[in-house]
Structures are given as C-alpha cells and as structure tokens.
Amino acid sequence: MENEFLELIKPIIETENYQKMKNYFHHDTTSTYEHSISVAYLCYKYHKKHNSKIDLYSLIRGALLHDYYLYDWHHKNEGHRLHGLRHPKTSYKNAIKDYGPLNKIEKDMILHHMFPLIIIPPFTKAGWILVYYDKVATYRDYKKNRKGKKK
Ligand SMILES: [Fe+2]
Ligand SMILES: [Fe+2]
Questions:
Q1: Which of 25, 55, 86, 127 lies 20 to 30 Å from 76, alpha-carbon distance?
Q2: Dihedral Cα 43, 48, 49, 53, nearest 10 deg
Q3: Across-strand partners of 25?
Q4: What is the CA(66)–ligand 1 centre distance, in A?
Q5: Could you tell me the domains of the chain?
Q6: 78-116 burial code (b ≥16 CB/10 A, e <16)
Q7: Ligand 2 centroid from CA 6, angstroms
Q8: What is the pTM (predicted TM-score) of this model?
Q9: Bridge partners of 9?
Q10: What's the CA gap between 92 and 113, in Å, rounded?
C-alpha cells in the first residue's frame, strides 16, 4: 500500500475503538477492520486512476467509517436484528462521536452505502463509489474465505 494512503488512514485506524473492529467478523473470517481498509484502498485506487476531483480525505474517511457499527452482527440475540438496514445509522452515530464532525460527503457515504437494500441512494459521487467498492470488497471477502476452506 502506498505511503500516502497509509498516512491518510493512520489517524483513524490507530485509535482504540477502530482496533476493536479486528475482533468483529464481518464476512466469514474477514474482520470489519480488514474489510473497511480494503474498501478504503479500492476507493483510493479509483481516485488515483481517474485523477478524481473528489476530496480524497473525505472519500477515505467515509470508506473507513462506513461499517463503524462496533459489534458482531452474527450475535442476533444481542439486539442486532435487521443489521443490514440499521448499521449505516449506527456507524454514522459512532463515527460522529469518535471522529466528528463529519462533512456532507462522509455522511452521505456512510448512510447510503447499503443501497439498494436501503431504498435511498447516495447523492454524491463519493457515495456511489463506496456503494460499488463495498460490494466488490464483500465479494472478494467471501471468495477468499471460500478458497481458504477448500484447501
Ligand atoms: Fe455495511
Ligand atoms: Fe462494508
């Protein structure tokens, strides 16, 4: 990973709460921590490849915090039902608390990343980039884990 990318993610990923995401499984054995960094990196690569005018700082923050819900969603008995629909709001609230204030781009990215499961689409380009790369990373997470199981 490029130094510029590592410098951008450092202030967030080195905090105690963000490190907790290493313990929450997101997709099979991929942690929410690993998943979120992969998504942020895909967004970063997109930005560089397309010489994007989108604010890189916001794009990376929105990507890093989109799944900042801070629990293991597999534990249904702990009140995490309807996780798919609710976690964007939980992530947003947690993100404001720990890294706020958030700007309009970051807010849009986090709240609307589950489109089309949630019916309201993003209204920023950064939001659409996240919708796309979150799904790419999710597909890769499951594929990687399935490969691992076959061995
Ligand atoms: Fe999510
Ligand atoms: Fe995600």
A1: 127
A2: 90
A3: 31
A4: 6
A5: 3-150 (1.10.3210)
A6: eebeebeeebbebbbebbbeebeebeebbbbbbbbbbbe
A7: 19
A8: 0.93
A9: none
A10: 11
